[in-house]
Write a structure and sequence with these properties.
This protein is α/β, with parallel strands linked by helices. The protein has helices spanning 34-42, 76-82, 114-128, 134-137, 148-158, 180-188, 196-200, 203-206, 238-259, 345-354; strands at residues 7-11, 17-21, 27-30, 56-60, 65-66, 71-72, 88-89, 103-105, 141-146, 166-172, 215-221, 227-230, 267-273, 281-285, 288-292, 331-333, 373-377, 381-383, 388-395, 406-412, 424-427, 429-431, 436-441, 447-458, 462-473. The strands form 6 sheets. A 7-stranded parallel sheet has the order 7-8-1-9-10-13-16, sandwiched between helices. A 5-stranded mixed sheet has the order 18-25-24-20-21, with no helix packed on it. Strands 12-11-14-15 form a 4-stranded mixed sheet, with helices on one face. Helix 3 (114-128) packs across helix 5.
């Protein structure tokens, strides 16, 4: 019998699905044209779970957007890459599957629990495999999941029990162990825009909280007198305690289910961004939370000293817990969190899987564990008119870099309304004491801007580039 072709399933991250109010007219609430961006910042109630309990997913967003608290990558580049593997179903509707699709994009209501999103994923996959026998479904599905989508996939494979159907899971910057950035959003609010009440009502954001003791406090001490480390659910923040504990318990259950899978089950490969400073820990001091990009010793990150993160998810968090003692290490890539959504590594991984070569081999001699790259320290939100500050470290290069030219380029992101109106290039200054390059780009009007940092002819490394998108917003 001829082996049936695999079904490649694509899951976006938070904000990556077009959402509409239920009904034939498809009243789109989130697709994020320029008008939607402004509306979400100033009328965030329309995306609250309380005001709109259920929204209908229509497809994946197809260009970079601003969700009011974070920049969302478009997924058109990823789907374009995956089109080499066959017919693409871009809508992923459980009742209207595209016949003969080889690649299925599965949108979901990213505000709601990852459990509900996994149930929608199951409905879509079942629709595409409805004519296949149970034997034909076994090992048929390859999941490619960005960010939050990786958690949805883990629920589907573990709690829903579909792991026998899955040949491989490829996660791109998934916060398997949570992200302190979510803690910052929920407790401190979002700098400049602050739609905190909306986010507090989203189960998915609470489920992004760190599932490790990420908070240090002197207000509670251990028996030996040392400052205590806390999980988010142990913070003295009454509204958060129960929700955070429920989210933690869910992740413990997911891990337990995964640990029951046979080692011969689905192959998991975690693609992580590693070179960019990332919020990794927090301190509770005098009733206030301070989240930091430092990686203090009390986190106990032995072996992760060179790994920082992708600017949103810490490197160690992007590795699933069951892979702590795994024979394969993660695939380390130079991308930041947004660009990870369409990293070219995905197509290479899929070609290997389709020829039955181990996915994890892609990180070996071809890529290297820590190849020379740029580490970009850049916030994603900036006030209109204020300078955009950034710092750059050239990683894994043993050379005198004091004379190295490192440039930062700023240009408006292309939109449907027109083309970019210009660009600005700034050479960054070398800071010998800190071993990095610093600089600032001039303040801009509200909008989305691409920041591209480049260093040409770096000794022993060649040309290095790092790219990300920032949002400039009107302050309060």
């Amino acid at each position: 019998m001829t082996e049936r072709r695999p079904l490649i399933v694509v899951l976006p991250g938070i904000g990556g699905s077009v959402l509409a109010r239920p009904g034939g007219a498809h009243d789109v609430v989130w697709d994020a044209g320029p008008g939607d961006i402004a509306d979400l910042v100033f009328r965030s109630g329309r995306m609250s779970v309380e005001e709109a309990p259920h929204l209908e997913p229509l497809g994946l967003t197809e260009s970079t957007k601003f969700l009011g608290f974070t920049v969302v990558p478009g997924y058109e580049k990823l789907l374009e890459q995956l089109s080499e593997f066959g017919v693409v179903d871009r809508r992923g509707h459980p009742e209207h599957p595209v016949p003969g699709a080889d690649v299925v994009a599965v949108p979901y209501d990213f505000r709601r629990s990852i459990v509900e999103s996994a149930e929608r994923l199951d409905a879509v996959v079942c629709a595409h495999l409805q004519d296949a026998s149970e034997a034909e479904r076994a090992g048929r599905v390859i999941v490619v999941a960005h960010s939050l989508g990786g958690l949805v996939a883990r629920v589907w494979m573990g709690l829903v029990g579909r792991w026998p159907w899955c040949r491989a899971l490829i996660t791109l910057g998934t916060p398997h162990r949570g992200a302190p950035k979510a803690l910052q959003w929920l407790v401190n609010g979002v700098r400049l825009t602050g739609p905190t009440e909306m986010l507090r009502g989203w189960p998915s954001v609470v489920q992004l909280l760190p599932r490790y003791p990420a908070i240090r406090t002197s207000e509670v001490t251990e028996p030996d007198g040392a400052d205590a480390t806390l999980y988010p659910f142990q913070l003295p923040v009454p509204w958060l305690t129960r929700r955070a504990k429920d989210a933690y318990d869910l992740h413990v259950t997911i891990e337990q289910m995964w640990n029951t899978m046979p080692r011969s089950g689905p192959e998991t490969v975690a693609c992580i961004g590693w070179s960019h400073p990332t919020l990794s820990a927090a301190y509770w001091e005098r009733g206030r939370l301070r989240v930091t990009k430092d990686m203090p010793n009390w986190l106990g990150l032995d072996g992760w000293e060179k790994d920082f993160g992708d600017g949103t998810v810490p490197s160690f968090s992007a590795l699933p817990p069951e892979m702590d003692n795994h024979e394969h290490s993660p695939v380390r890539v130079a991308d930041r969190h947004g660009p990870l959504a369409h990293t070219e590594t995905v197509a290479d991984l899929l070609r290997r899987q389709l020829t039955r070569r181990p996915l994890a081999a892609v990180h070996g001699a071809e890529h290297g564990e820590h190849p020379p790259t740029i580490g970009l320290d850049l916030d994603e939100l900036h006030a209109a008119g204020a300078p955009i500050r950034l710092s750059v470290a050239v990683r894994e290069v043993e050379a005198d870099l004091s004379g190295q030219a490192v440039w930062a380029r700023l240009r408006p992101v292309r939109s449907e309304a027109g083309t970019p109106s210009g660009r600005i290039d700034v050479r960054l200054s070398w800071d010998g004491e800190l071993g990095r390059f610093d600089g600032e780009l001039p303040g801009q009007a509200a909008g989305l801007y691409e920041v591209r940092v480049s260093a040409r002819e770096v000794p022993h490394a060649g040309d290095l580039v790092a790219v990300d998108t920032v949002a400039v917003v009107e302050g309060d």
